Amino acid sequence: MAFPDRIERTVEIAHPPTTVWAALTTAEGLGAWFGDEATIDLRPGGAARMSWTDGFTAEMRVERVEEPTVFGFTWHIYGLPEDDPRRTYVEFTLEPAGAGTRLKVVESGFAQLPDDVYRKAYDGNTEGWAKELGELVAYLDAA
Amino acid sequence: MPRDVEAIAEQVFVALADPTRRAILAALAAAGPATATDLSGRLPITRQAIAKHLALLAEVGLVTAEPGERRRVRYRLRSAPMQVAQQFLAALARDWDGPLGALKDHLDRGAREPTAASIQETRGNHD
């Protein structure tokens, strides 16, 4: 596989899960280490938003809230058009490790392709050049 | 991952690896549908070379052919495969190491107000 569908990182943090949980799931926490400002409605389906002073913003939808072990949200795939429905899913998993926390983040869905996009992306390949030329000839003959 | 997704992305990257095809795609993106003759007037490439590259791009679905004026075939950029390729770029561009490092620093600093320096550092770490 040449490209990742899924990105995974694990870090050891010298603070207990409750402290890490607050940094991940509160506006104050997210606005301090991730964005420059943040808002969050911490419940499945709730909206969260981070903004940066350079004008960049990220809109998130909270998906999983299992304090203080699992926090999941989806967000827009960076670089795709604003109206593209595809989103990646980000899940933080917190596990006690001694006096600290083992924090895992998994972001998945980079290689997803919904049916309509699949069709749009592929019809040119399967139907091909011959069909296009055929349509051209038919058009010219009718004119 | 479905193989086809990767096949679509690969065709985009292969097309973009060639400077002539890159120039053709860029011209279609910038100024809209054009015939091989239109493009040869705008690019420092022969009409024959452009026609050959356009045929290749049409075969892999990166441009579509449509009837143009005076019985000439006009080519239009297809954005759908580009959007598939963009997903792969998004995965490569996603930086979790920066934000996770910022999280550690934030927690190590305790509950203190973030300093101007730390805001600068966090900003530099998003996409």
Please give a handful of descriptors for the protein shown:
heterodimer; A: 143 residues; alpha+beta; Alpha-D-Glucose-1,6-Bisphosphate, Chain A, domain 4; 2 domains; seven-stranded antiparallel beta sheet; B: 127 residues; mainly alpha; Arc Repressor Mutant, subunit A; three-stranded antiparallel beta sheet; 7 helices; 3 strands; elongated
Task: Explain how this protein is built.
The complex is a heterodimer of chains A (143) and B (127). Chain A has 143 residues and is of the alpha+beta class. Chain A folds into 2 domains: 107 residues, Alpha-D-Glucose-1,6-Bisphosphate, Chain A, domain 4; 31 residues, no CATH class. Chain A has a 7-stranded antiparallel sheet with strand order 1-7-6-5-4-3-2. In chain A, strand 6 and strand 7 form a beta hairpin. In chain A, helix 1 crosses helix 2. In chain A, 22% of the residues are buried. With 127 residues, chain B is mostly helical. Chain B folds into 2 domains: 85 residues, Winged helix-like DNA-binding domain superfamily/Winged helix DNA-binding domain (Arc Repressor Mutant, subunit A, Orthogonal Bundle), CATH 1.10.10.10; 29 residues, no CATH class. A 3-stranded antiparallel sheet of chain B has the order 1-3-2. The longest helix of chain B is centred in the first third of the chain and has 15 residues. At the A-B interface, strand 1, helix 1, helix 2, strand 7 and helix 3 of A face helix 1, helix 4, strand 2, helix 5 and helix 6 of B.
